[in-house]
Amino acid sequence: MAKPFTLVQLRYFSAVAAAESMTAASRELNVTQSALSAAVSQLEKDLEVQLFIRGRQRGMRLTAAGRQFAKDITPFLEDADALYESARGYSDALTGELRVGVFAPLAPFRAPVILQAFEAAHPDVQISFLEGDQEYVRTSLLQGDCELALMYGLGLDDGFTTKVVERIPAHVLVSADHPLAASAEGEVSLRQFEDEPLILLDLPHTREYFMSLFAAAGVRPRIRHRASGYETVRSFVGRGHGYAVLNQRLHHDQTYAGGRVVPLRLTDDVPGIEVMLVRPAGVRPTRRALAFEDVCGRLYGAAR
Q1: Helices (H), 48-200
Q2: Which one of 101, 182, 259, 269 has the fewest CB atoms closer than 10 angstroms to its CB?
Q3: Which three-class secondary structure string do you get for 190-229?
Q4: Cα–Cα distance for residue pair 112/100, rounded to 1 Å
Q5: What is the set of domains in the chain, with CATH numbers?
Q6: Which residues, in sequence order, are bridge partners of residue 163?
Q7: Alpha-carbon distance 292 to 279, whole Å?
Q8: In percent, how much of the chain has pLDDT > 70?
Q9: How far apart are CA 168 and CA 177, in angstroms?
Q10: Is the pLDDT of residue 251 over 60?
Q11: Which residues contact 50 (CB under 8 A, 6 or more apart)?
């Protein structure tokens, strides 16, 4: 039996779901609000499911069923686009928008490089990044605000599909005038800092990771300051307020506050951190998402 809804209805629904506004969606699609409203209402009637909660003040909010439906139809609409492109002889071309979540401390190190490579390969795709801590990016994935994410493999459960693209070891960061900064070996153990103040990068899930490193080394750290910004941690260290344990390394030793820092390798047998491409489990990826994964694999493919 043929299903009653149409491709046009699905596209209209998808636009309203993304904009959470009939007015904004009608402008984007260049159709009247009345036509848009009628199509969405008919879709709800055909499906016998309420997809939106309508309100004067808060616009169009997706119901739980509507949120799931929006996720489910994304690959279907992508396939429809691919069919259209194929029929016109442009089967290799990718167009449209791709929203990617990225863990904030990773963003300045990875996002510009990935964007440059992706735009060179797929110039007709508009890519945008949503930055935040691990929990924000995780929630954004589940709510459909982004299609996939580049983040640490922390705080994830079986509700996500993951692919490791890189493994980054931990290191200790000290000020340039720290007694160990001039160490000929450039290597230290966490126990050497047992009595020194720690500047902790304090973000959801990352704080637990750093604490696990100390536990594995049998060291109880003296936490003096907590900061949620990577550069804030570096600046505190550069001004001699303590040491830090981090994973990402800059290519220079300057900090925003004017101090200098020195990274030292860890001799402790502690785990590095995994950088992953993450998608919600059970959601079929679009061709744009697969293309993004391919670019990341080529740039950081050593861990595959």
Answers
A1: 64-87, 107-121, 134-143
A2: 269
A3: HHHHCCCEEEEECCCCHHHHHHHHHHHHCCCCEEEEEECC
A4: 13
A5: 7-86 (1.10.10.10), 96-166+274-303 (3.40.190.10), 170-271 (3.40.190.10)
A6: 277
A7: 12
A8: 93
A9: 26
A10: yes
A11: 44, 63, 65, 66
Closest CA to 243 of 256, 257, 224: 224
| The residue count for the chain | 304
Tell me the Ramachandran region of residue 259: left when phi exceeds 0, alpha when psi lies from -120 to 50, beta otherwise: beta
- With b for 16 or more beta-carbon neighbours within 10 A and e for fewer, the 2-13 pattern comes to eeebeeebbebb
| 280 three-class SS | strand
Query: Which SS3 state, helix, strand or coil, does residue 46 take?
Result: helix
Q: What is the pTM of this model?
A: 0.66
Q: Say how far apart CA 243 and CA 222 lie, in whole Å.
A: 10
Strand-pairing partners, residue 60, are 54
Structure tokens at 7: 């491709």
Task: Assess contact for 255 and 234: CB atoms under 8 A.
Answer: yes
Contact by Cβ (8 Å): 230, 246? yes
For residues 234 and 228, give the distance between their C-alpha atoms in angstroms, rounded to a whole number: 11
Tally Cβ neighbours within 10 Å of residue 228.
Answer: 16
- In the chain, alpha helices (H): 7-19, 22-29, 33-47, 64-87, 107-121, 134-143, 206-217, 230-238, 287-299
